[in-house]
Amino acid sequence: MTDIRDPEYFACHILKIRDKSKELVPLQWNRAQRDFHQNRTGRDIILKARQLGFSTYVQAEAFRRTVTGTRTTITLAHDTDTTQKLRRMAERFYENFPNVKPERKYANASLTTYPGFDSTATIATAGNKQAGRGDTYTDFHGSEVAFWPDAEKIVAGAMQGGNPDVILESTPNGAQGYFYDLCMEALDGDSIWTLHFYPWWWDDEYRIALEPDETIRYTIEEQALCDLHELKPEQIKWRRLKQKELKHLFKQEYPEDPRTCFLTSGNSYFGDTSGCYTAPLDVEYNEEHQYYAGLDFGKTDDYTVMIVIDRNTGSVVDNLRVNQQSWATMRNRIATLYKKWRCHLLLAEENSIGDVNIEKLQSDGLRVKPFNTDNRSKDDIMTNLHEALHSGKLKLQVWDVLEHEMNIFVSSQTPSGLWRLAAEEGGKDDTVIALAIAWESTRTPVGADLIAFI
Predict the structure, then answer these.
(1) Distance CA 238, CA 200 (A)
(2) What are phi and psi of 44, to 5 degrees?
(3) Whole-angstrom Cα distance, residue 238 to residue 308?
(4) Can you say whether the dihedral through the CA atoms of 54, 55, 59, 60 is positive or negative?
(5) How confident is the model over 307-331, as pLDDT tens digits?
(6) Domains along the chain?
(7) Which helix (H) or strand (E) holds 251?
(8) Residues 6+ apart with CB under 8 A from 282
């Protein structure tokens, strides 16, 4: 027997919404909403394209929970207009409730109470640091969190009174801020949060019908998208139109990748590198080629990254990116990658913890040369890397981590007047450093008497 406490049944048989044509219709979950419901964990981040229906899903669930059990729910939106929209949605749920409506005691601009269930539902704007404080919540919904002021403090305030079921959802908004940090930590596997990424093609309406006898000839990028996500020509036609409308903002409004959708401030040191990702994947060792590598040791929350380049073709062929492992384990993985490609040279950053690790790698028989990174040497290797990328001398493998870090790597002037080359505030640049050192290693003369490791 179907129970109204079943979320999907409740949505379809109890709740009404306005569809895109402004018609009053039952709330039938789309595939994105259903996928999220099946995979939610209680500490969930939704990174999404526009208008996939997640605010509707979360509000429907908050309403269901408050009228079928004892709950204290709170929703915080990024602006007044959205707050009012969510409030109207909740009111519509109540007005169209079939049969006998649950009793309400209060139903004002922000608070609704259901005394029969001892439940309360709050919908407010995340406009100040006090929003969400002062109660113990069972359910917390953050809408468009990437646009909140003081998001970290607001979320902490709403969560401090208990252990609520939390959903933070948003479209991307720049490569900085609390929501961005949460997404990057989750992608890196270092988080209590579960990231759910929903690109634009989760909406089946994002397509344009082809004209009779019309065919779509794909670019290399479009073909890769179609192969990876089984996109149809009608979707590519829609994508092209939206790209013309939004230009560089398309990646943010209609994400295709959970890293590159966070647009930078627009002053990336390397500029447009989209044409540099032409190196083949799944490359095998060629005994007639010479392979060189760069290594950046990561401290604390940073990553230790090693990148291998085929000197003969100018192509990146392999990489290693690890953290939160013992130094002995990381050195073992470095040695494994080194021997896999029988590297002629491994150029490793010696700053900080590099010295000790380099000595141990050398004692294990690896040809490792230390590289000191200071302002002058960093400027030199980044200049060389920039020239190699834009001249076509160096070709990169498709790697979302590297592409993202290249995009947020900037040149900025400090108050003292010095220029600083690094990731934008809050970002990481470990892969960029490793790539620059790897390219520098290919420019380093090496004797002909090196031992090739078998």
Answers:
(1) 11
(2) -120, 140
(3) 38
(4) negative
(5) 999 999 999 999 999 988 899 999 9
(6) 7-198 (3.40.50.300), 274-442 (3.30.420.240)
(7) helix 250-253
(8) none
